[in-house]
Amino acid sequence: xxxxxxxxxxxxxxxxxxxxxxxxxxxxxxxxxxxxxxxxxxxxxxxxxxxxxxxxxxxxxxxxxxxxxxxxxxxxxxxxxxxx
Length: 84
Description:
The protein is mostly helical.
């Protein structure tokens, strides 16, 4: 959960620069926003990789005993009524 806290902290730290750039047209703040967004992108990629690795390393859950598989869509449709 520490990654989530870091992510929130980074976003909150950019708030002032966003306001300066959009409200006051401060171009230096825009540079800081772009730098922060790049850090956010990199952090997001690291988190995605970590989550994927954890998911792949987890043991596969055994199928529930007696569980039925979903029937294919074609098998679920009723046959059309015959014309007389």
